[in-house]
Amino acid sequence: MIEIRALDFDLEKTLGSGQVFHWEKYGNGFVGAIGENALFLEQRGGILKVRFGETPKPAPGTRALPRIVARYFALDHPLEEICASFPRDPIMNAARDFCRGLRIIRQPKWECLATFICSSMKQVAHIRQIVRALRQRFGEKKEIRGHEVFSFPSPSRLARTSESELRKCGLGYRARNLLETAKRVASGDADLDSWSALSDRQLREQLCELPGVGMKVANCVMLFAYERIAAFPIDVWIERVLRERYFARKRKVTGQMLADFVANYFGAHGGYAQQYLFHHARMTGKRKSQSHSIDQFH
User: Fold this and answer.
1) Which residues, 6+ apart, have CB-to-CB distance to 280 below 8 Å?
2) What number does CATH give the domain 2-76?
């Protein structure tokens, strides 16, 4: 096992906060994949213990493997400084305290984009089922500690399939959007890597031109894949928090009013504030027994 120093980090909260949907609890840790690498992760205090399974050929050197994990979990983000920048109000204070150690993951761009196209109007449990089916049917099988882990299928792999095949993964109408977007990415028409150089406004516009991507999904991809930490996805949980806590005295609140408010109020680290507010609301709200599982992209 490789040991990685991981101070001010909570593995379980980070993986369970609605950013990624394929990691599975296994013993005292989690199994999953970072790109093509299968991993078992276990946290012991400020140390992250990591065991790698089969690695792609040519396999990255042992020195590169810890860097892959540290980068994925953004262990370089100055979390104390980020949290200190949050507005000081009762709901934000409660969310910050509840989510201590939660970090915004740096996800592979295509995997993040495809996952959130699949997430539209779905509960967390359903998204996990869809993602698992896509990985098992179209990804590459790896093994870690006797447990099967599948990589996320490449855009070229999905571009070669059909809408009917994708529907077998539980995608419904999202199958067409995923297929068409996979074709655009595979052909190079949508060059996700080159988009890293774009401004936030330009990046959001490019993402919104893809099938199945609206403002909410675009902001999710900007935050989780492009590290645009100011991006603030507004979902049903966040909208409820904003309306009840910050606009309680206003009867009519438009989406544009909310968007303008969060940009000004939460500022440069708004994406972190959003994730903390969301995770806190989802974990502690539980207004109805079934609503507990509704994710931020419903």
Assistant:
1) 94, 95, 98, 99
2) 3.30.310.40
Bridge partners of 141? 150
- Cα–Cα dist 62/220, whole Å: 32
Long-range CB contact pairs, 83-88, < 8 A, 24+: 83/272, 85/267, 85/268, 85/269, 86/266, 86/269, 86/272, 86/273, 86/276, 87/265, 87/266, 87/273
C-alpha–C-alpha distance, residues 295 and 119, integer Å: 9
Q: pLDDT tens across 223-237, in order?
A: 999 999 999 999 888
Write the CATH number of the domain with boundaries 109-224.
1.10.340.30
The sign one gets for the Cα dihedral 41, 43, 44, 48 is positive
pTM for the structure as a whole: 0.91
> What confidence category does residue 288 fall into, taking pLDDT thresholds of 50, 70 and 90?
very low
Domain boundaries, the chain: 2-76, 78-99+226-298, 109-224
